[in-house]
Amino acid sequence: MIFDFLKKYSEQFDGASHNDARTDVSSSSPSEAERNHSHTSTGKDADRMIRRHLIFHGSVQGVGFRYTAHHLADSLGLTGWVQNEYDGSVSCEVQGPPFVIDEFLQRLNNQRWIRIMDMESETMDVISDEKSFRITY
Asked: Could you tell me if residue 88 is inside a domain?
C-alpha cells in the first residue's frame, strides 16, 4: 500500500510538474520492484532541494500525527511545518532532498495509529533560510 503511494508521489517529480496532485493511498500491495527499491540516492538528486505542500486526509488528528511528523522530520534533517486543520485534515510543508521526503512519508504512514487515506501535494518554492521543522497552531 505505502509503496504504491510513494510510487505515485515520486512520479510527480519525474515530470518536474508544478501542478496540484491528489494521490489515493488506499491501493493494493507493492510489486517486487517496489519492495526492492532503495531510498538511497547519489549525484545531483542528493543535492537537489524541493519543498512540498501536503494535505493529509484519513485518521490524522488525535493520533500523534504532528508530534510524529516533527520527530521524523528532525531525525531526517528536513525543514518545514505541520498543523491541524478545522476540517480534520493535517497540512504540512516539508523541504529537503526528494528521496528524504519519500522516506519521511513512508515512515509517517507506518505508524501504528496514523492512517493516511489520501494526500494532496503541491510543489512550492524552496525557502533557503529555513532551519528547522516546527508544529504550528
From this structure: yes
